[in-house]
Amino acid sequence: MSRSVPAIVILGNGSLATARLIQRSLPGALIYGLSTRVEGADVVYQEFGATLRELYTTNTPIIALCAAGIVIRTLAPLLLEKGVEPPVLVVAEDASAVVPLLGGLGGVNVLAREIAESLGIAAAITTSGELRFGTCLLNPPSGYTLGDLELGKRFVSDLLGGEPVRIEGDAPWLAQAQLAQDQQARLAIHVGSTEREPSANELLIYPKSVLVLVNEEVADLADAIRKRLHNANIAVHSLACLLASEQQMASQALRDAAVELNVPLRFSRADTVCEQLAELTSPPLTVHGDNGITVAVAEHPLDPSRIGRARGRLAVIGLGPGAADLMVPAVKLELTRANDVLGYETYVRMAGPFRADQVLHCTDNREEMQRARHAFELAAQGRSVVVVSSGDPGVFAMAAAVLEALHESRDPAWHSVDLEILPGVSASLATAAQAGAPLGHDFCVLSLSDNLKPWEIIEKRLALTAQADLAMAFYNPISRSRPWQLGRALEIVAQYRIAETPVVLGRDIGRPGQTLRVTTLGQLTADQVDMRTMVLIGSSTTRVFPRAQGLSWVYTPRSYGDKLVEIK
Ligand code: SAH
């Protein structure tokens, strides 16, 4: 299992120097600094507890430069829940101590040793097995996996009790371990890909050395693979990846099987699959063929990232209005998966911070179709690509451009990309929420930009929307190249709505320096609005009342009640 990139979390400027030292030995790691106390961090956070818990639940290794007690208390509520446990360790801000706290099976001691070494000190390792044997037997290196954790723990306590051990099979990483070895020992560490009955006397470690060539037409694929492996006496634990023909790249059955078996799914050109198998390792693989499922066993662990290629992924994501806590979790997760991030520079910056290995492609706001095609080109190579929009990607943003590019393309590689649109909180909804509920009844969303549609259509829609007594949300209300359009739009609306109609102006909502104003249609002038403003215009039923601190609430009731409206 490869470790994800750690987050270095600090609370004050006093820890910055040590944080930078640690960062130097951990490529891609970012320093998270408390907004009010740290200058020059890579990521600025507002709240320590929420940040730490979010890192923990997204399985991010945590290196906190503060007292162990603070970290323990902060994470305590999460510890009772079973699930991921990333490495968590604390480092003294003067670089005098490195203390691993959690994530023994996630390699916390290995990380602690690395950090300690970079600081020229010794790590405070407390795990008995680790101290005695110099390695965590239950956390084999990448390319190997443990058979059973509970049995493993018992096995390690027996070893700690002083019993000797036999090593069966090839375990290069144990060459350095301080184990009392004896060929006659009752206890054995067994490394191999053959299926074995679990037993208390054996610590079973499986090399990820088995590749299964699959075909989507096989019924109940995951089950069929398990049976096939069982019949060949091969442990399912040793499965390194599934390989299929590129023609089947979009197959849901293949994807489900890979998810169920928890292994990567790779693709290769049908005519080269056999050559690929032969080239994979030397000495060559043992191949067990069968209709639809071919099992190949290598002598050493396989590296799936070097077998064929992955199905490319393209996610069009919405960042929400700007504030990190208004970004949906699926979008945050997607950003951590991305190899490439495309978008207008301002939004790409908003989506950060990024790791050193993530490639950013910032382009001008106008080059939408070009950006969409570029995204498919990258994804078709097997990369994981994210296209960013602010707010929601489907509201005057990139999702439609991406779909249009796909619709126009005949390239099968583009059509087999795993395409997903992930929603965000659109500016109209973020603004409405801050003002109350001005869009609480039927409403209409309009862009006032005539760059992509004729102005006559906009005028017609404004008139009909106003007549239909819909509340309105204006996106792109004004810009330097469109100076008069908003004024004209307001004239049209004023023909159907009284001057007292409530209006909400939200500028940079969810971003630093946001402003919210409540005014009326009669008082609204174009100079109060710029291109970073959302304009919400109430319907005939929209009401305003004061709230504390001089602000007001705006809402449109759910019901018309006994109010009479005339809709022509
Ligand atoms: N996809 C975006 C909208 C893009 S159109 C979304 O769903 O929000 C750009 C327009 O959206 C801007 O001209 C402005 O009117 C509005 N807008 C975007 N972000 C905003 C914000 N944070 N505050 C106020 N208005 C915003």
UniProtKB/TrEMBL annotation:
One of the GO biological process terms: methylation
Enumerate the spans annotated as Cobalamin synthesis G N-terminal domain. Answer: 51-129
State its Enzyme Commission number(s).
2.1.1.131
Keywords of the record: Cobalamin biosynthesis, Methyltransferase, S-adenosyl-L-methionine, Transferase
| Pathway recorded for this protein | Cofactor biosynthesis; adenosylcobalamin biosynthesis
One Pfam family this sequence matches: CbiG_N
Using the record's annotation, list all stretches that form the Tetrapyrrole methylase domain. 314-524
| InterPro entries per UniProt | 4pyrrol_Mease, 4pyrrol_Methylase_sf, 4pyrrole_Mease_sub1, 4pyrrole_Mease_sub2, CbiG_N, Cbl_synth_CobJ/CibH_dom, GbiG_N_sf, Precorrin_MeTrfase
Q: What molecular function does GO assign, one term?
A: precorrin-3B C17-methyltransferase activity
Q: Which Gene3D superfamilies match?
A: 3.40.50.11220, Cobalt-precorrin-4 Transmethylase, Domain 1, Methyltransferase, Cobalt-precorrin-4 Transmethylase, Domain 2
Which superkingdom does the taxonomy of this entry point to?
Bacteria
Cross-referenced NCBIfam families: cobJ_cbiH (TIGR01466)
Protein name as it appears in the record: Precorrin-3B C(17)-methyltransferase
Which species?
Answer: Pseudomonas gregormendelii
